[in-house]
Amino acid sequence: MISINNLSVEFSARPLFSDVSFVINPTDKIALVGKNGAGKSTMLKILSGLQSPTSGNISKPNDVTVGYLPQQMKLADETTIMEETKKAFRHRFEMEEELKRLNAEVESFSDYESEDYYRLLEKVQSISDRIAMEGISNVDAEIEKTLIGLGFERNDFDRPTSEFSGGWRMRVELAKILLQNPDVLLLDEPTNHLDIESIQWLEQFLQSKAKAVVLVSHDRAFLDNVTKRTIEISCGKIYDYKVSYTSFVQLRKERVEQQMRAYENQQKLIAETKDFIERFRYKATKAVQVQSRIKQLEKIVPIEVDEVDNSRLRLKFPPAPRSGDFPLIVENLAKSYGDHLVFSDAEFTLRRGEKVAFVGKNGEGKSTLVKCIMGEIPFDGHLKIGHNVKIGYFAQNQAQMLDENITVFDTIDHVVTGDMRTKIRDILGAFMFGGESSDKKVKVLSGGEKTRLAMIKLLLEPVNFLILDEPTNHLDMKTKDILKDAIKDFDGTVIVVSHDREFLDGLVEKVYEFGGGKVRENLGGIYDFLRKKNLTNLAELERSNVTSSDIKESRVIKTADNLSPQIDQASKSKTLSYAEQKEREKVIKKAEKSIKIAEEEVTKLETRLAELESKLSSGDASQAVLNDYDKLTKDLEKAMNEWENAQNDYDALIENLKI
After folding, report:
1. Cα(506)–Cα(524) distance, rounded to whole angstroms?
2. Which helix (H) or strand (E) holds 270?
């Protein structure tokens, strides 16, 4: 379908890759891998037509469509979520308008035997066929399904995109690309802004609905679940494997070992040849042989070995004083912003040495609870840090706390102690600060580089309680392995806030799920938790398929139950478990949804009110601001009443159903 022929790219006369050739077939699911700077993103840009190669070409049929999601892009801010997403179907709407116009022409025709009439009918048929080929009967339903899959709520659809963070707006761009259903999807780190549930939805979408996919990602589980072919860019060349990522890692290891053996043999030959030349250079009887060896040496093509695998480098936290048996005790903890409840009744205890994960959708309170533990924000309830606990905290904004006026090397040199001082260069190299990069000033580093540097700094500090908030966002797979091994070897207590399943697998033995204002404890690892979640989601799906006859039958059964207490209890419970429970679940779900919509409206109004209060406190007391403040205050009061009514209705419902 797409053929890449002898592709070469150079930057400032430095070759990035040369003479690269491969083919993308119609149903290929390809993982594009390689170290940072190898050229993965550049390759995607070339495939999408946004960048031209230095030499070589790309061949693809004219009717092949390509969808490209870069890591960073300019996002629209002047539309709602629904309006922006509908742009994915612009071509379809144009075709539908054209079809209406052509049908109007057909109706106005009088000469049914003319060539113009038949040409018009052919156009109508052609456009109708193209619309039918898309296989989408209801555009709004497809949009809704995709946006909800990517983590949006229905009441988000009419909100302006400007109210959302960059990560959420990137989800809108991803939704648009998926809905266009291109022949080839090019995705550059699509999971960076997704939570676990959204990543799983995207996996299923790419497996079942996408055609060809070329994917760059540092999420190993995501690659394994989606791709069946791995193309590695290394040392300016590509290596094409018809296997998933995990199998590729093993095959790559074998390839590098073969390269190393060949390299060592070649170095031995070169050394022997040079030694012969030096020993007999001035002997007349050996002149012919010496010249022959010199020519032989000149003809040798040096064998390149792929970049050194630093994953063997093991980091170990420096010794720290032993903490008490219970580093963290949380009892009836609650956090609200105004009247917006983030979570309540959180209650758990961490024992020394436990490693746990905080997971859940974005905005459900994971980072908020971490900030409560760190004493950064006030809260209700009881939270106790145990005896002799020394916390090492990696926040999402940790990079901002670095001293920008010193070098990368000095940043680490200031914290490292003991034998590790001799390994600073190796440590920096493992985290992609090798060579001259270690002498850069911190202020010239990118956001991702600063994050990696902050992570190294934390790994070298003596602590006995680690709290890591999204630690893997800017780390490649090898670096994540180094970090994961270091945490496994760490004998203190660990909380990890992350959506990276592969990173959490084998690392944590307990999962705390955040959602619906609650914090729920789940024993077992991350995949144990996900298996339970899948069963729960399936049960919810089954419960939602309730027909009116089910509800009527349920009501009859309930009435009969009230009138006939002598009915056999076992028989009664069997009947009720099928029909009445389905009705109850549907009604409860609807009531819970009403509460959630009301809560979100209150939150939105409170946020806007806080912005106005900030303006007023800074001296901006213009009439317009005062009018807006008045109106928002009334709107908030009304929203609060609606929220209270929804909660009361829910409580009354639960009481009536006697759940």
Report:
1. 10
2. helix 245-280
In terms of C-beta density within 10 A (0-12 exposed, 13-18 middle, 19 or more buried), how is residue 215 classed? buried
| Distant-in-sequence, close-in-space partners of 332: CB < 8 Å, separation ≥ 6 | 345, 346, 347, 380, 381, 382
Mean pLDDT, rounded, for 531-550: 51
Q: Determine how β-strand 184-188 pairs with β-strand 14-24.
A: unpaired
* 245: number of Cβ within 10 Å: 27
Which helix (H) or strand (E) is 370 found in, with range? helix 366-373
What three-state secondary structure class fits 7? Answer: strand
Start-to-end C-alpha separation, the chain: 58
Q: Is 354 exposed, middle or buried (CB count within 10 Å of its CB: 0-12, 13-18, 19+)? A: middle
pLDDT band at 306 (very low <50, low <70, confident <90, very high): low
Cα–Cα distance for residue pair 350/529, rounded to 1 Å: 18
Among the listed residues 548, 557, 592, 560, the one whose alpha carbon sits nearest the alpha carbon of residue 578: 557
pTM over the 0.70 mark: no
* Integer Rg of the chain from CA: 31
Q: What is the 3-state secondary structure (H, E, C) of 574-631?
A: HHHHHCHHHHHHHHHHHHHHHHHHHHHHHHHHHHHHHHHHHHHHCCCCCHHHHHHHHH
Phi, psi of 26 (to 5 degrees): -55, -30
What DSSP letter does each residue of 194-245 carry, written as one string?
A: --HHHHHHHHHHHHHT-SEEEEE-S-HHHHHHH-SEEEEEETTEEEEESS-H
What single letter denotes the amino acid at residue 253?
K
Burial state string for 557-570 with b = 16 or more CB within 10 A and e = fewer than 16: bbeeeeeeeeeeee
Contact indicator for 150, 194 with CB cutoff of 8 Å: yes
The percentage of residues in the chain with a pLDDT greater than 90, rounded to a whole number, is 19
C-alpha distance from residue 418 to each of 423, 439, 460, 604 (Å): 10, 22, 11, 52
What is the C-alpha separation between 344 and 350, in angstroms, rounded? Answer: 18
Distance (Å) of CA 188 to CA 185, 204, 370:
10, 18, 30
Lowest mean pLDDT among 199-203, 309-313, 589-593: 309-313
Please give the pLDDT value at position 25. Answer: 92
Q: Which of 23, 18, 17 is nearest to 2 (CA)?
A: 23
**Pick the residue with more confidence: 487 or 554?**
487
Kindly report the average pLDDT of the chain as a whole number: 80
Beta carbons of 432 and 448 less than 8 angstroms apart: no
Helix (H) or strand (E) holding 553: helix 548-563
How many whole angstroms separate alpha carbon 259 and alpha carbon 257? Answer: 5
Cβ atoms 9, 220 nearer than 8 A: no
> Number of C-alpha atoms within 13 angstroms, CB side, residue 116?
7
For 651, phi and psi rounded to 5 degrees? Answer: -60, -40
Tell me the CB-side half-sphere exposure of residue 495, using CA atoms within 13 A.
26
Query: CA–CA distance from 28 to each of 47, 102, 213, 273 (Å)?
Result: 15, 38, 6, 47
Residue 544: per-residue pLDDT: 42
Q: Which residues of 457-488 are buried (b: 16+ CB within 10 A; e: fewer)?
A: bbbbeebbbbbbbbbbbbbbbbbbbbbbbbbe
Which residues 6+ apart lie within 8 Å of 413 measured at CB?
A: 421, 424
Count CB-CB contacts under 10 A for residue 376. Answer: 11
